[in-house]
Amino acid sequence: MGMLSEFKAFISRGNVVDLATAVVIGAAFGKIVTALVDGIVMPIVSLITGGTSVADWKYVVTPAQVDAAGKEIAAEVAFKYGAVLQTLIDFVLIAFVIFLVLKAYNRLRAPEAAPEAPTPEEILLLREIRDAVKR
What we know:
Layout: H1 3-12, H2 14-48, E1 59-62, E2 65-66, E3 72-74, E4 77-79, H3 81-109, H4 121-134
Antiparallel strand pairs: 1-4, 2-3
Helix pairs in contact: 2-3
């Protein structure tokens, strides 16, 4: 089998197409939740913390050096832990929303209780013979 036909067989498998679809939908879903976090959750956190954005939180190790004319000579050295915290909040909220969606999906998709299969006739006959021998 040639490489092109192997590639075609690989791509046409359902798992690959399902995975590609999931990645695209997941990326779009991530953007929606990020917009939710940036537009609603983080402003509420900013109000609680005194009006500063979480992404702007930092620990300055060395402040920027400015000359007499106001030109920056050396850049500020800082640990920007706020950006990490913002990304962590995004991740946790995205994971939680995905959890809720999957939980609802699995509840809808739960298999119904299958009716009990009728007992085969051979088993019924064997039971009758067993009961007759016991008497």
